[in-house]
Amino acid sequence: MSWFNETLYPSWRQSFQIAKTLYEDKSEFQELVIFEAPGFGRVLTLDGVVQVTEGDEYVYHEMLAHVPMLAHGAVREVLIIGGGDGGMLREVLKHPVTRATMVEIDRSVIDLCTQYMPSISDGAFEDPRAEIVIADGLKYVAETDRRFDLIIVDSTDPIGPGEVLFSEAFYADCRARLNPGGIIVTQNGVPFLQAEELKSSYAKFRRLFQDPGFFVAAVPTYVGGFMTLGWGSDEASHRQHSVEEIRRRFEARPFKTRYYNPEIHVASFALPQFVRDMMKEA
Questions:
Q1: Which of the following CATH numbers is that of domain 2-53: 1.20.1530.20, 3.40.190.10, 2.30.140.10, 2.40.160.60?
Q2: Which pTM does this prediction carry?
Q3: DSSP bridge partners of 35
Q4: Taken in order 219, 33, 125, 175, is the CA torsion positive or negative?
Q5: Contact, 62 vs 259, CB < 8 A?
Q6: Catalytic site residues?
């Protein structure tokens, strides 16, 4: 019996039993491994860190897509930074968007996930509204003259190629690319184990946005308690909608979810006290 031992934290380990290794190699940017694990289905890891599993990917993808899209209510242009597995693109395209542009630095992630984990993208890459750009997300945001209603930063943790996607310069460029009333949301780790990441992100967002904050989701794979998802906008009303208003918007969309619902949407902005205390320390 063999096991995959995640190496994200120096003093904490989680392990997955490997039923079968499907792929293992290094790309230009990172080491990629795809294996099958009991209870989780197929698992993608990059540089020793679990990125996505077939078993619970819907939690993260639904929350990082549907919360900002239904809070905004009129998203037409979306930019996804990262997200090579296609799950975020899949969820975004359930909405009546005009275009969803996904910028992924490593083409091999897209190709391998399409080959070995096709249920995650579920045809999203073939949608005519999808625009796939193979490029450095940091450089793309700095150089493009396009504007977006929503920017989703579906990044790895702040190590390796994903580290620059947690910089203030990157967030400032994202802010400059937002339309009035636009929203940026980010993957921001597990605060119980990554407190400094949360504090650092909040300090940057507080300097850049009139309404900075976080919302939470419980993703089994990302162990250590609630995961925080970063939120930045200059329109505070997006986070103040009632359950009734979110339900009205949600019921107008013809798709089903497995984690997200209007009650979870509103409740996700209620933060545990230790997270609030971290934000005060930022």
A1: 2.30.140.10
A2: 0.96
A3: 21, 43
A4: positive
A5: yes
A6: 154
